[in-house]
């Protein structure tokens, strides 16, 4: 059991460092008592009115002033966590905040774990699990598109869609179960076609939601593109052209890209990490060899490899050697230095190609569009953010519904059909955390920041 009833937690909610305002947040049954103590007030002093800002001085146990500022009291259940919450908004002084934190602990609070406020919000039903995850995604957003998508999920856009399908699954299950005690003849074709129709509708809606969730998850996670190719074909130049600034050192001397150079670009709001490899070739140089082994590891996690080749020199044995060692990830041959040639050289058979000039800028828009497509992003104006965990739960749900459809069509016993639908509903319910999520909570909330 992660949650202990009766525990009052405390954390500094504002980011570390100096700032205009620093906020200490308490949540739990003793929150008000501890806040009163911090303000030099007795436990039996009148309770503070709900959600009113009061200017107060904050003291240590020795009666010495630590800071002054504003107190806010949010009585349960109308607070972020669903428990009694008090905020002390003082100056953004790391030492004053640390002192207040220490005093709170002395008065009986416990330092909160990462994400513990949001975890409590989930456990008290203030947020469902997908919404709680959206809180973290909003905090960690690196682009405006990510902010918008996470905000939509936080408002419940994703959860609502999940709940709607969940409701339909339960309805269909009830329909199937209602037929359990009757024979085929008794039920007639109306029942059969209602089940048939229900299953079909479910499949369509699941497919749609899955597509949205996949894009939402990609947007939240960002993508990764590898630039591979022999030295001097223009990998660094391409990286710079896409990043539109001089991040990589571009020089005509082969082998200057010693290690993995990473650059994050935003494609339509989707953060994409571009990784310029060490050239992926054997090297006597130790530093470079290290770069090569790291490159190979990272290759596996990319969605797309751009194999850059030189249109001026044409396809060479070394290009082929690199092509032959690429892992089986989507790839595209980029004929760079298009500006130097009037016609493109012959590419290896069955390989998709795109001609560009990193120097002049030709073909970059087409390349960006191609990258987006490989990321599975129709556009980055995603309806909501999601996570891989959600995509997998939707895949499990879809699989169970497909199973049910198969049973329905092969006239399997309705008990089996009902069982598949029940399993589908359970898989779906994991997204919002309706059931069976105890063992993933630690993993989800530990990735939050302290104080959220
Ligand atoms: P890398 O070793 O693959 O990273 O290649 P670089 O980006 O360092 O480029 C090698 C050389 O090719 C440099 O002199 C670049 O200026 C030149 N270069 C890169 N892209 C182009 C291009 O599109 N057209 C022309 N003409 N030269 C290019
Ligand atoms: Zn049917």
TrEMBL record:
Family to which the UniProt record says this protein belongs: Belongs to the TRAFAC class TrmE-Era-EngA-EngB-Septin-like GTPase superfamily. TrmE GTPase family.
Gene3D superfamilies, per database record: P-loop containing nucleotide triphosphate hydrolases (3.40.50.300), Probable tRNA modification gtpase trme, domain 1 (3.30.1360.120), tRNA modification GTPase MnmE domain 2 (1.20.120.430)
Binding-site positions, (6S)-5-formyl-5,6,7,8-tetrahydrofolate: 25, 87, 126, 452
UniProt binding sites for K(+): 232, 251, 253, 256
Record-linked CDD domains: trmE, TrmE_N
HAMAP family the record matches: GTPase_MnmE
Annotated positions binding GTP: 232-237, 251-257, 276-279
Domain TrmE-type G: start-end pairs: 222-376
Enzyme category, top tier: hydrolase
Single biological process term from Gene Ontology: tRNA wobble uridine modification
Record-level Gene Ontology MF annotations: GTP binding; GTPase activity; metal ion binding
Cofactor: binding comment: Binds 1 potassium ion per subunit.
NCBIfam families, sorted: mnmE_trmE_thdF, PRK05291.1-3, small_GTP
The protein's assembly and partners: Homodimer. Heterotetramer of two MnmE and two MnmG subunits.
Pfam families per the UniProt record, alphabetical: MMR_HSR1, MnmE_helical, TrmE_N
Cofactor annotation: K(+)
The EC number(s) this enzyme carries: 3.6.-.-
PANTHER family with a match to the protein in the record: TRNA MODIFICATION GTPASE GTPBP3, TRNA MODIFICATION GTPASE GTPBP3, MITOCHONDRIAL
Annotated protein name in UniProt: tRNA modification GTPase MnmE
Any Gene Ontology CC annotation: cytosol
């Amino acid at each position: 059991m992660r949650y202990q009833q009766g525990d009052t937690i405390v954390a500094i909610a504002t980011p570390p460092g100096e700032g205009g305002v620093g906020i200490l947040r308490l949540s739990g049954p003793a929150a008000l008592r501890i806040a009163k103590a911090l303000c030099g007030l007795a436990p039996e002093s009148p309770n503070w009115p709900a959600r009113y800002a009061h200017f107060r001085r904050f003291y240590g146990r020795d009666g010495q002033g630590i800071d002054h500022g504003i107190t806010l009291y949010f009585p349960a259940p109308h607070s972020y966590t669903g428990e009694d919450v008090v905020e002390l908004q003082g100056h953004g002084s790391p030492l004053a905040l640390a002192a207040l934190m220490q005093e709170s602990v002395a008065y009986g609070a416990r330092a909160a774990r990462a994400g513990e406020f949001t975890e409590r919000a989930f456990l008290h039903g203030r947020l469902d699990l997908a919404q709680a995850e959206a809180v973290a995604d909003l905090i960690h957003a690196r682009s405006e598109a990510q902010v918008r998508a996470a905000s939509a999920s936080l408002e419940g856009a994703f959860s609502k869609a999940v709940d709607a399908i969940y409701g339909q699954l339960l309805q269909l299950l009830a329909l199937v179960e209602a037929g359990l005690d009757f024979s085929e003849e008794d039920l007639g074709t109306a029942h059969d076609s209602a089940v048939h129709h229900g299953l079909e509708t479910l499949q369509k809606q699941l497919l749609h939601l899955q597509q949205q969730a996949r894009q939402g998850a990609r947007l939240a996670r960002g993508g990764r593109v590898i630039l591979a190719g022999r030295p001097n074909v223009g990998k660094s130049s391409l990286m710079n052209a896409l990043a539109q600034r001089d991040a990589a050192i571009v020089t005509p001397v082969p082998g200057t890209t010693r290690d993995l150079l990473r650059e994050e670009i935003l494609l339509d709001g989707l953060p994409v990490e571009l990784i310029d490899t060490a050239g992926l070739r054997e090297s006597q140089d130790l530093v470079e060899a290290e770069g090569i082994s790291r490159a190979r590891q990272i290759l596996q996690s990319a969605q797309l490899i751009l194999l850059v080749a030189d249109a001026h020199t044409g396809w060479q044995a070394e290009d082929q050697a690199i092509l032959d060692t690429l892992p089986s990830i989507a790839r595209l041959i980029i004929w760079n230095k298009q500006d130097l040639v009037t016609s493109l050289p012959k590419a290896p058979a069955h390989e998709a190609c795109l001609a560009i000039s990193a120097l002049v800028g030709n073909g970059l828009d087409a390349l960006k569009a191609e990258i987006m497509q490989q990321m599975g992003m129709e556009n980055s104006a995603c309806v909501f953010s999601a996570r891989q965990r959600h995509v997998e739960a939707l895949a499990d749900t879809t699989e169970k519904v497909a199973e049910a459809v198969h049973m329905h069509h092969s006239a399997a016993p309705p008990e089996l059909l009902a069982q598949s639908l029940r399993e589908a509903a359970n898989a779906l319910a994991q997204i919002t955390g309706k059931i069976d999520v105890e063992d993933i909570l630690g993993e989800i909330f530990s990735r939050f920041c302290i104080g959220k």
